[in-house]
Amino acid sequence: MKLKIQKEDIQHALQSIQGIVDKKTTMPILSHFLLKVNETASLMATDLDIALKGPLKAEILQKGGLCIPARKLFEIAREVEGEILLEAQDNNWIKVTSGKSTFKMMGLPEQDFPALPEITKSDEITVKADILRNMIEKTIYATGESDTRYTLNGLLMHFIPTKKSIEFKMVGTDGHRLSVIAVNLDGSISEEKKLILPKKAAMELKKLIEGSSDNITVYIDKNHIFFSTDDVLLTSRLIEGTYPNYEQVVPKNNEKTVLVEKMAFLKALRRTSIMSRERTNAVRFDLEDGKITLISMNPDIGEAREEISAQYKGEPLTVGYNARYVLDILNAMDGETVSMKLQEPLSPSLLLSPDLEGYTCVVMPMRT
Q1: One domain for residues 157 and 66
Q2: If pLDDT is split at 50, 70 and 90, which confidence band does 87 have?
């Protein structure tokens, strides 16, 4: 195996797999990527749960295949200048030459690389990259990191067949807050599908499609989901288990409505939360006609209080929240205003963006 590659091309390709290769693995092969050279060159990386396969632009001088340490070659590619020559040598060594710099690394044989899942005949769904990326951004902050409720450690992808299209909902929740966004897609599927995409896979997918407006083709089988674009294929194992009934969590009868300017609200909440207890991040919201007063108290440090104007009419209401949960929602929302719909001090609260239909956030209040 022998090939010439431009520094920028190999750097970009290796950057895309850094989040997938396993750096702390007990299986050395998982810290390597497979470089396969036939008529064209391609690279593959996996941690056994997620896999990425993509093309590599190169001038091919000799065919072959070798597993190469991903982190070290990335560091080399980042530091050298100009064209890079990769040349496989005896006993799985790889020689890397650029200008007057020469590196030799021990690789592993091609046959040691784990077999990647193949796309099987399944429903095929097409979604624009920018829509998919936006859906991930609007929901991923709400996913959990639990050892016990492992189904919450991913995003629910809920596909619902309708007469003329597919309703696609993406949901994130950790039991304290919930975020759901819905869009309609062209096409059809045979039946309703609920899949749980691991958080890491969602993050890698978001990175992969950053800045793209191409179509992403989604294939689904029993245990895996495949995202295909531009000859690049991202594969992920699905989380097994039953996701909570998110529709039951969304309150239907919250009658008290507050409309507030988003950036003023976000900045005031950020300032007030400075004085909150680190463990709970609790901030109290005192709602009165035309205003919200934000209050945080920490007996070890002191307190903070700030008043912001808001469109609210009704009985005064006091409700407490984990400020971090509300800030995450505000950061994810587009538009200039945010609508809060409340009922009782300890019942779930709705946060909506008047500028984005189909996006709903729920946050559980806390005692203050």
Answers
A1: no
A2: very high
pLDDT digits (tens, 9 = 90+) for 236-270: 999 999 999 999 999 999 999 999 999 999 999 99
CA neighbor of 330 nearest in space, from 278, 251, 260, 235 = 260
Structure tokens at 367: 């005692």
DSSP for 54-91? EEE--EEEE-EEEEEEHHHHHHHHHHS-S-EEEEE-GG
Pairing of strands 349-352, 337-342: antiparallel
Distance, C-alpha 361 to centroid of its chain: 17
Q: What is the distance between the alpha carbons of residues 115 and 42, in angstroms, rounded to a whole number?
A: 15
Task: Give the range among 112-121, 170-179, 266-275, 282-291 with minimum mean pLDDT.
Answer: 112-121
- Please check whether residues 171 and 287 belong to one and the same domain: no
Determine the 3-state secondary structure of 135 from DSSP.
Answer: helix
Q: How confident is the model at residue 278 (pLDDT cuts 50, 70, 90)?
A: confident
CA distance readout (Å), 36 to 58, 66, 127, 175: 12, 7, 29, 44
Residue 356 pLDDT: 85
Return phi, psi of residue 313, to 5°.
-135, 130
Query: ∠ CA(179), CA(328), CA(288), 5° rounding?
Result: 95
What predicted TM-score, i.e. pTM, was given to this entire model? 0.93
Rounded Cα–Cα distance for residues 98 and 27 (Å): 30
Helix H, strand E, coil C: the string for 314-364 is CCCEEEEEEHHHHHHHHHHCCCCEEEEEECCCCCCEEEECCCCCCEEEEEC
Q: How many domains does the chain have?
A: 3
Largest interatomic CA distance in the chain = 80
Q: What is the rounded average pLDDT of the residues 2-20?
A: 95
Question: What CATH number has the domain bearing residue 171?
Answer: 3.10.150.10
* pLDDT value, residue 148: 83
Give yes or no for a contact between 94 and 105, defined as CB atoms under 8 angstroms apart: yes
- Asked if residues 136 and 170 have their Cβ atoms less than 8 Å apart, the reply is yes
**Which is nearest to 180 in space by CA: 354, 296, 15, 332?**
332
Range of the domain at 342: 250-363
pLDDT the model gives residue 196: 97
